[in-house]
Amino acid sequence: MNRRSTLASSVAGAVLVALDGTVLTVAQPSLQRALHASYAQVQWTSTAYLVAVASLLVFAGRLGDRYGQRRMFALGMLGFGVVSAGIGLAPGIGWVIGLRAAQGVFGALLQPATLGMLRGAFPPDRLAMPLAVRTSAIGLAAAVGPLLGGVLVNGLGWRSVFFLSVLPALGFGSAALVRPGPERPTVSRTPLDVPGALLLAASLACLVHTLVTLHATTAATAAGLAAAGLAGAAFIRHERRAAGPLLPPEVIGSPAVGAALGVLVAVSASLFGALFVETYVLQRRLGLDPFDSALRGVPLAVLMVVSAPLCPRLLRRVGARRLVGAATAVLAVGVLVLPRATGALAQGGAFALLGAGFGTVMVAATHVVVRRADVAVAGVAGGLQQTALNVGPVVGVAAGTALMGAGEGTALPVLAAVAAAAVPLARALPGRDVVSITPAADGVRPGVTARR
Asked: What is the pLDDT of residues 161-173, one digit of tens each?
């Protein structure tokens, strides 16, 4: 696939996943009534997907590194489309939950590939703009998703939101198969670390499930966190001894990559936790209906779309270290302003700060993670980035849920502090780079990089 079609496929995959999550939220009340489901069952339509996708992203990225990012993207898109159609035809809530878990598996296959394909198609010094386009498209999907979902549910019913993704998924998935293009050959034939993949999946699945179901008993929550910790410890022990570890040392051994992933977790936790709390403020305390409350948040999506294309130029001028630190601080200020913003104008300004900060961090931190990974391990790097952006919101919403009892005056400052705590991590990111633009052969790193 050429660069344009690769970028189009990457954007399509990212938008498809973003739209799926936003339109489902709108459709859940209608789904609950139509299928006579309980609240807990409806929640599992989201939980099953989250657990499946979060636990498999890194291993899916490794599969892409070994067998080809394009193949994983095609398999993920085709499977996502077929399962979406199955959900739209599901006769009962049990089928919906099971198929949502299957959809999470295919979502895990395609998400790291959307970044791995970009890393393979674009040289490191030209990665920032494709990542910015991808981020802008995600922001646009986040803005359009709830409105589109509302129109579909009101006009055609809840099943229509799942049929929405069928044709695009099948179309882009089929195109990736029939137009193979010059994909790089597999660089590494090291054995797949299946035990490591199982341990990591168990740890992440336990963590995500426990955080999503915080309303369970204290004993169940403690048991879930303990299981996640034990599986995580076993995974670390295994990785240190494995001949071909799931997480290559050249990826996780980089302080810059670790710091970028930490920032992504923190800012996504702060943002999504704040949005969860603010939704209750807008609808319960201020008495706005869902549509009006969604309109208050439009500046977030707008600034996310606008800030992303500006990020590549800022990266060249000031470097990731200063840019990510400043953008993370902007997001923290936005969260801190929210509880004091009562009018529409003030709330719009706070949401604009959130969008500008998050859009910039998304591009800059992802650029650090993907650019610093060699093409041979780009899928794992993409899987780690996607894992951070899946786990972070779950942590943030769980924190927001736990803090709601103390009121938004307490919850939002705490969530702002989560983002602020990540600002020092930006010091580990690279400064302003001057990268050789001499063309390099596929699979070979470009010339020497000098840091100022």
From this structure: 889 889 999 999 9
